[in-house]
Amino acid sequence: MTPTTTAAPLPSLASAFGQPNYQLRVTYRGASDLHMEVWQRPTVATPHLVKPLRLGGLGGRPLALIEERVLRQLARSRVKLGKLPLHEPQVYSLTEEVALRLGLMFRVLAPMRSRDKMMACVMGIEEMGREEAAYWLGMALHRPNPRRVLAALRLLLQE
User: Fold this and answer.
1) 63: in domain
2) What is the span of the domain harbouring residue 43?
3) DSSP 20
4) pLDDT-based confidence at 48, cuts 50/70/90?
């Protein structure tokens, strides 16, 4: 019996330079129903990751409210969504700065319902520096009570 070999996926350009690798997964589910998720993929720079880590996701009405701002951030990162097939996820590579902001934005906005408060949070996250966004996302990902961290951030951003 001959052993079979499986080819490993080719590393991305970011992982070739020892940088974290981020992806945006976009799924079109029907009329005005879009869902976006930000994922961090394992690379040489992140040896603690053995499988992709979901940083955040948003869809439906909350995403529709901030879709223009998200698309503007994606355009700065040279990501153009174009026409999306129904129920087939499309994957796009993201820069670290855009991935941090979108991941944090999606986590903060997911449970919110008030449009005014949502927009205040979005504007606050857009004004954050890269280090501040990384700090808050790290706190939301690695703390024992991430809901408390996100609630505190929401309170700070709404004032």
Assistant:
1) yes
2) 17-158
3) -
4) confident
